[in-house]
Each structure stands twice: as C-alpha cells, then as structure tokens.
Amino acid sequence: MLRYKINFCFVAMLLMVTSAAADTKRVLLLNSFGPDSSNWFEYTRAVRGALVRKTKDPIDFYETALVEARSANANEKPFTDYLLALLADGKPDLVVAVGGPAVNFMQRYRQKLFPEVPAVYTAFEQRRIAPAQLTANDVVVALALDLPAIFENMLKVLPDTQNIMVVLGASPLERFWRQQLEKDLRGFSERVKISYTNDLSFDGLLKQAAELPPHSVIFFGLLSVDVSGASYNGMDAVERLHRTANAPIFTFTDTFFGYGVVGGLLTSAELLSGQTANAAAAILAGKAPEAIKVAPSSYAAPRYDWRELQRWNISESRLPEHSIVDFRVPTFWEANRSKVLISLATVVLQFLVIAALLVERRRRRAAQVEAESRRNETLRLNRVATASVLSSSLSHELNQPLGAILNNAAAGRIFLKSAHPDLALIDEILSDIIRDEKRASDILIGLRNLLRNQSDAHQGDGNLKRIDLNDAVRDVVALLTPEIAKRNIALETHYSQEDLPIRADPIHMQQVLLNLMMNSVDAMERAPRRNLVVRTRYNVYAATANVTISDTGNGIPEDQLSKIFDAFYTTKKNGTGLGLPIARLIVETYGGKIWAENRAAGALFCFSLPFAADARASSAA
C-alpha cells in the first residue's frame, strides 16, 4: 500500500511539472545587429518588458543577434544551423524579428526554420519588407518614414542651412537607406548640398563633422558599422559626434533623443514597442496572427531638446506648432514659483499683521489718552465735590488767620501812634501777622492743589515723588479737622514711629485719604457715638506701608461689602458712587491693595502700598 501511495505522488508531481512546462511560452527575440548596437538591444528590452507585463503565462526568452547583417557577403548558413540547434528540443511559440535585416532574414529562411510558428516583424521601415513573402502567421509592426518631411522641418528650424551631412554606416542596411535618401531628397538638391558618410571611418566622420562650413546641419541616420568594419553603439556614436561637431544634429528616432540631437520629427520607440508587445501578447493568448492588423506608425509630435536650442541659438518661434520642448532649465520664477508665492504671501501677511498691530496700538494709545483724560477729569470733579463739602470748614479756617491779621494790624497802628511806641511789642505783632498770613497761604495752597486738573498739574511720571505716607495722612487730617470738629466727631490719630516712604503722586494720596475719611465721616452722621480713628503702620514682613481708617457708624451691609468699590455703586442717598472706585483705582495703580471690613461697631477701610525701591534696598541692607 505504501508503494502505491509513493507511485501516486510521483505521478501527480510529474503531471504538475508537465502542466507547468506546457503553460510556459517560448519566445525567440531576433536582433538585426550584435550587442554593440545598444539602441537595437534597448528597443528589444523594451518589447520584452512590455510583453512580460501583458502576458499572464511565464515566458522563456531566447535572444540572439544576426551578426552577419554587418556584411553584404556574409554566410548565413552557420547562423541558421545555430538557431535550429538552439531550439532543437522544441519549436518556439513566437518569433519576434527586430529591425530590417532580421525581418529580411526571417522571410528568406522561414520555411526552413519555423514555417508554422507565428512571427512579429517590428522596428523597420515598411519599404524593407517583401509583402509577397508574408504568410498568414506574420504580423507586421512597421514604420512609415516621410524623409522629405524631416528635412523640411530641419530647414524650417534653420532656414539659413546650406549643407547637410547625412551620417550612415557601411552595412547593407545603411547603404540601402542611402539609396532611399538620394531618391527621396532629389527635390532638395537645388536648395542645399547633401553629403553622405557611408565610405568614411568613424574617425574620418568625426574629423569632417568638426570642419563643416558655416550654415551646416548633421542628420544622424544609422551607424552600426563603419567602412573599416568596426561596429558602434548608436547612442555612444551620437554623443561622440555631439562633442566634436561644429553643427547641430538632427535624427529621425527618439532613441537618440537626449544624447545631443536637436530633435524634430521623431518616431516613438515607446509607441512601437507597445504595439509590438500588444501583438505578441495577443498571439500568445491564442489569437490568430492574420486577425491582428497594425497600421504603420509615423512621427509623434515634434520634439526638441531645449539645451541644443540654446546652444545653437535656435528661437522657439521657429518650431512647428504644438512642439514639445524637453530638458528646459526652468527660470528662477518657474523653479521657485511656489516658494516665491509663499514668501510673498508671508511678507504680505506679516505686513498686514504689523499694520493691524500699529493701527491697534494707535487706537489703544488714543483710548488710553482718552481714558486717562476722563479719569483725571473724574478725579478733579471728585476733588471739587469734596471741596464743596468742606467749603464751610475751609471758610471758617480762613476766617481765623484773616481775623487775627486784621486785629494785629489794627493794634499795630494804635501802638505806632503813641508818643513812645513799644518796638518789641510791635515786632511781636508783626511776627503774628506773618504767621497768620502763612497759615492762610497754606490753606489756600492746599485747596488749590486739591482742585487742580491732574493733566495740568503734571505730565508723565514727573508727578511721582518719594513721600512719607505719615506726612500725607497728617496733611489730610489737618485739612479735615475743622469739618470733623463741626460734626462733633472725636478724632484719634496713631502714626507709625518709622518713616513710611512710598513713591506716589501726593495729590493722588490726598484723594484716596479724603475719599476714605469723608466716607467714614458721612457714615457716622446719625450714629450716637462718633469716633474716627486713623492709623498708619509699618508692615515689615510684606514691606508695605499700611493705613487703616475706622469709624463707629452703622457698618456696611454684608451683601454689599463686595460691591462698594464698584463704579457708580453707592449706599448714600446723594452719593455719586465714584469716591471709593477712584480710591481703588489709585491704590492698585501704584501696586497696592485696598479693602473694607465690618467691625463690631462700624466699618474699617484699609489700604497698603509698597515701599519705594530705594527704601526696600535700605531695609534689606
């Protein structure tokens, strides 16, 4: 039983191998020239690659070259024997003949070699084939070259041309094309002088190309073998000719495009190889060759090398309509268009942002100036209102020194009229007058400062001074003492023993203290017990100068405690709601804090201000 299983597996594997072998297609690729002619082999490689992509079944390629095509008297029998030996184990499924010599060879030896095998003839001009010798198994993928059109195009691009050098080799194929060119170009004999290079070695050809007269053009046809029998790679030959020649080079196929030719009307190797692969793939898929018809292909759109146009100063205006220009070196704008546009957009955007910021800055400055002006006006009006409240006290305060001055002056006159005036007494009277005048003057100066418009009084930071907060409190207490006494309020003051140096506008400090103290005074209007306590303190830990003002009024309702510093919010019947907000604005402007608290009896207002910078430095030392 085990033996039968082994035999069964062996038979199955053999069948699988046989099936796989049966599915593999055998294709013979026959080139016209040997491996030195890389342009032919490049075309064959293109056909091979396209065929692999278009065929599902695996392909076994046999590729060889008709080396005898280089000579007119070559013995072809050894090559036919080689082909028969090469495929002795089985005929190919398809033969692809590349180039005129290979096509002619297949037609001569088809019956001997592969009479029933389908064949595709490609990469040749249709004049190279014998239509009568074609069989039902042959598919033709040929070119239809209009040689006069190529030369007309050359003369249109270079109308001053007087000489055309036609580069052709010495092989039978290249001599055939000399005959065809001489026949097709008879109409150009009166317009230009045409010379051929079939009888030159390649070195002689290069020398002649380097010494061409002005207004000459080179047409590169084919160069597989020169007169000495040396074979050449067409692409290498074009490049060497390009380095040596003193005239522009044209050709008929895009195989040489990019190797130094100007361009013109060119056949497309890509199109031709694609047509060949399509026909070959259809045959391998089982389609009858006689059912496959491929029209001869001609030229693609005119194509030119921009580098050669620049080298030979050929204007693009001379090129045919719809011409394609390759290898163009882009201008700075073309190469960097997106970058330039992005950069310009960035610059414009930055300019717009900067402009918007400048406009916004200007608006903000204008708004700040307007706000500062309104704030100063509000402060001034608040001071005027405060002065109005204090007007009766100020009037009483001024009456005392003025009355004393008047009495002293009257007494002085009486003493002066006596027979023996007491000079010491008169001097004392005059000293009293001076003292009272100074007192009245101080009262008036304080009132003037209180009523001055801030913008008129100072500009910028010039109003900031280093002052002792103790002195500022004393000045305001002195100013309010008559009003406080008038309202029967007991005043207590407790000043810090240490100096309280701050940097501030003295008028601003007066404003804060006046608002807070008058607010406390007004709060005790109906209080049975009226005590006002003003205290200054040195807070060594926070490095601040503190002021507290407490009263024995009714206090602040708890639900309103957080709102009393808001603008236009007031608990007074005739209040403006500006005093406490202005006090907060001034204190916070100088980096301080202000708050209010309720006590067991009355309210407590507090504010703190940072010490002047030099004062903190001295404290730290």
Written account of the structure:
With 621 residues, this protein is α/β, with parallel strands linked by helices. It has four domains: 142 residues, Response regulator (Rossmann fold, 3-Layer(aba) Sandwich); 151 residues, Rossmann fold (3-Layer(aba) Sandwich); 126 residues, no CATH class; 161 residues, Histidine kinase-like ATPase, C-terminal domain (Heat Shock Protein 90), CATH 3.30.565. The strands form five sheets. The protein has a five-stranded parallel β-sheet. A five-stranded mixed β-sheet has the order 14-16-17-19-18. 32% of the residues are buried.
How are the SSEs placed, and which strands pair?
Blueprint: H1 2-23, E1 25-31, H2 38-54, E2 59-65, H3 77-86, E3 94-98, H4 100-113, E4 119-125, E5 138-143, H5 147-157, E6 163-168, H6 172-184, E7 193-196, H7 202-210, E8 216-222, H8 234-244, E9 249-251, E10 263-264, H9 269-284, E11 303-305, H10 306-311, E12 324-326, H11 332-335, H12 337-417, H13 423-451, H14 454-457, E13 465-468, H15 469-486, E14 490-494, E15 501-504, H16 506-523, E16 531-539, E17 544-550, H17 579-589, E18 593-598, E19 603-610, H18 613-620
Parallel strand pairs: 1-2, 1-3, 3-4, 4-5, 6-7, 6-8, 8-9, 11-12, 14-16
Antiparallel strand pairs: 10-11, 13-15, 16-17, 17-19, 18-19
Helix pairs in contact: 2-9, 12-13, 12-15, 12-16, 15-16, 16-17
